[in-house]
Structures are given as C-alpha cells and as structure tokens.
Amino acid sequence: MKHVIHFSIIFLVFFKITFAQSSTKYRLIIHGGAGQIVKGSMSIDEEAAYRSKLKEALMKGNEILKSGGSSLDAVIAAINVLEDSPLFNAGKGAVFNSKGKNELDAAIMDGNTLKAGAVAGVHHIKNPINLARLVMDKSPHVMMVGDGAEEFAVEQGMQLVPEEYFFSKNRYEQYLRVKEKEKKDTLKNINQNDKGSIDSKFGTVGAVALDKAGNLAAGTSTGGMTNKKYGRIGDSPIIGAGTYANDKTCAVSATGYGEFFIRNVAAYDISALVEYKKISLKDAAVEVIFNKLLPQGGTGGIIAIDKDGNFTMPFSTEGMFRGYILEDGSWRVEMYKDN
Ligand code: ASP
User: For residue range 167-191, what is the model confidence (pLDDT) as tens digits?
Assistant: First the structure.
C-alpha cells in the first residue's frame, strides 16, 4: 500500500511537471523597422533577403526560449542577428547623421526586475544592445552615452570597431538623398505633411519575449534617423519611450519618428493603460499608435507582448518588418500592411 501511495505521488508530480511545461507559453516577437515599405518597392531578391534575416533572428531567439533560457537572452540573440546584417538600421546597417557619421543607440529592459540598461551616441560598438546589457548588469546606472559608454565597453572587455565598419554604400546614398531633400524642405514641412521623407528614415530593430518562467523582456537597437543632427538621441534607448518591460503588464519595443515616442512616453503609456485601465494590450497599443501619436504626426509602430502571451504589432506607416514565433514552433514574417 505504502508503495502504491509513493508511486502515485511520483506519478502525479511527474505528470504535473510535464503538463505544466508543455502548456507553458513562450514567445518571441521582432521588428526590423517601420516605414515606406510598400509592395513592389523591393525586388524579389531583396524581399527574400529581409524575410530570411527576420526568420534567422526568430530562430536564434527561439532556440534560447525553447531550451528554457531567459527572455532577456532571447531578445539579445534575435537583435544581434539584425544588428549584424546591413539590411537594418542598427549595428552594421546604421544610418548616417548630418555629419556623415553613425551614432548608435540601444536599450534593454528586464520585466522581472525592472532593471534596464541603455547606451546612446556610440560610434565604435558593433552590437550596442550587448553594451546596453552590460550597463544593466555591470554598472549601477541605466544609461551611458558617447565616449564614456565606449570607455566602459573597453573596461568590460568589449572590442571596439573602427567607424568604417558601419559604412555601406546603400545607406550612404540614402543619406545623400535625404540630405538633399531636407535642404529644400523648411522645418515646417518636416511634419505629418511630409510622411514620404520621414518614413524613408526608419529601420530600427527590436524584440520582445516571454520565457518559460513567465518573464518578459524588451530590447531596441538603432542608428536613429537618417541625417539626424549630431548628438540627437531618439526614443529607442529611452526607457518608457521606445523600450519598456514589466512582468505585471507587457514588454514593448517601438520604431518610428522617435521625437513623438519620447514626448508621449509611448512604450510606458501602453503599459500604463494595461495596468491602470485594465484594457487589453491590443486596445492599449491602438490607442497610443493611432489615437495619440498619429494625429500629432508621429508615425511608426510597436511590437508588444503581455504576461499571458498575447501580442500585437500595430503600425501607422505603409509597412513594418515584423515577425513572431510561438512555443509550438509556428512562425510568421511580414512586412506589408495586412489585407
Ligand atoms: N525610432 C528611431 C529613432 O527615432 C528610428 C526608427 O525607428 O527607425 O531614432
């Protein structure tokens, strides 16, 4: 009898663990920037290249989640794939500022501890999201900029890369085109009425994830906006503007016209709506992207996931590179507006 009871307990514990694991949600959502991404604007090969990089980022991050790794590690792994590709405006493919230089920003946030790390205006960091992680893990601070951030990177054993690492012909030509166009524009024109020009400057990357332990994380990495003034910092590295995570609510990564996301504290606003108004993540995101930012001229989009694994990817631009992978292995990559 004693044996039977023991066996039953062992069986129940085993069944519970197995059942709990197989029903645990873990998910990764990524974006590769919002903007003037319309059908027909890319060649078939270009489109395939974007799809394959986004898929690679999803798979890398998912490997980590699947093996029980943290949402933080998954977010970083996915972002590293996109940072190392010249296709996206982050890391290798970062856009040029008005002085023809690359100034990169990134942030990471841990929804479990509410710890965060961010870097801005760095010139020699191959993977700014990794430096943001070091700021979070190895310093008492949240945000470091410019030379100081790079000095800290070296202290932490990170190798700097020469500025030429970020040079790409496509990006440089894009910069010259935007520069020329902006010379003709008055400041007044750089608003909602000039979506074409603004849209062409986007391309940031970001990821949000929920891991098996139920923890959320968000990360964003960018070269900012083409032809931005030297020293300009966008929303991506600003906690609450372009990046935010809180296990109680959701994890958010934004892309778009950063100044508007900063002024409206967009990522935190979505979290606050979920927390205080108790509305769904989807409704909160729509409220901020379409009802708040868009009427002001702040185009762009976000990816977000909540503590229950619900996720959303709304954007007010023509398109947004985006994708998700779920715990059952199903995945999807998209770039244009849904029908
Ligand atoms: N949000 C970024 C910034 O303003 C740009 C982007 O999303 O592409 O720096």
Answer: 888 888 888 888 888 877 654 444 4
State the virtual CA torsion across 128, 132, 133, 136 in degrees, nearest 10. 170
Of the candidates 30, 330, 31, 64, the one whose C-alpha atom is nearest the C-alpha of residue 211 is: 64
Atom of ligand 1 nearest to the CA of 228: 9
Q: Which of 87, 202, 220, 253 for a ligand 1 pocket mutation test, highest count of atoms within 8 Å of Cβ?
A: 202
The yes-or-no answer on residue 113 being catalytic is no
Q: pTM to 2 decimals?
A: 0.90
The per-residue DSSP string of 173-219 comes to HHHHHHHHHHHHS-GGGSSGGGHHHHHTT---EEEEEE-TTS-EEEE
Q: Is the CB of 253 under 6 A from ligand 1?
A: no
Fold of 25-336: Glutamine Phosphoribosylpyrophosphate, subunit 1, domain 1 (3.60.20)
Catalytic: which of 24, 113, 186, 204?
204
Decide: 235 in ligand 1 pocket, CB within 6 A: yes
Task: With a cut of 50, list the residues of the chain below it in pLDDT.
Answer: 11-23, 187-199
The answer to whether the CB of 88 is under 6 A from ligand 1 is no
Residue-wise pLDDT for 23-55, tens only, equals 489 999 999 999 989 998 899 999 999 999 999
Query: Which residue's entry shows tokens 């503007």?
Result: 241
Q: Among 102, 171, 225, 228, which is best to mutate for testing ligand 1, by the most ligand atoms less than 8 A from CB?
A: 225
Q: Which residue's alpha carbon is at the smallest distance from atom 4 of ligand 1?
A: 258
DSSP assignment letter at 315:
B
In angstroms, the Cα distances linking 102 to 13, 98, 180, 207, 232 are: 55, 9, 18, 22, 11
